[in-house]
Each structure stands twice: as C-alpha cells, then as structure tokens.
Design brief:
The protein contains two helices and no strands. It has 73 residues and is mostly helical. It has one domain.
Length: 73
C-alpha cells in the first residue's frame, strides 16, 4: 500500500513537472513540442496515477476492515 502511494507521488510529480516544462523552464530545462517520448510519458504517468489510485481505493478499506477484526494479542 505504501509502495503504491509512493509510486503515485512519483508518477504525478513527473507528469506535473513535464507539463510545467512545456511552458516555462524548470530547473534550466524546457521541452518544446510533443515528441513520441513525451506523449508516451504523459500517457503512462496518467495511467499509472489512475490505476494505482484505484488500487489504493479498493485495497485500503479491506486493510482497515481486516485489521479491525483481527484478534487482539
């Protein structure tokens, strides 16, 4: 679960940074135009964020419920 949240942060950060670098220099780097690599990165970062977000939303309630019903030690 924590790995999925970390991966969402990385993918979303990469997506936002790439979109910012399209319009203004970011750390001295600026993209110009949408080459195939940029388009693929935008698609895959978006899909990663979407699918891992859905995973977290589906798994988190199950983890909370399973920990609540476990016997106390």
């Amino acid at each position: 679960m924590l790995a999925a949240l970390g991966a969402i942060g990385i993918a979303a950060g990469s997506l936002v940074s790439l979109l910012i670098s399209e319009y203004t220099p970011l750390f001295g780097f600026m993209e110009s135009g949408y080459r195939l690599a940029i388009v693929l990165t935008l698609i895959f970062d978006s899909l990663t964020t979407l699918f891992l977000g859905a995973f977290v939303l589906l798994v988190a309630p199950r983890l909370v419920r399973s920990r609540g019903t476990a016997p106390a030690r």
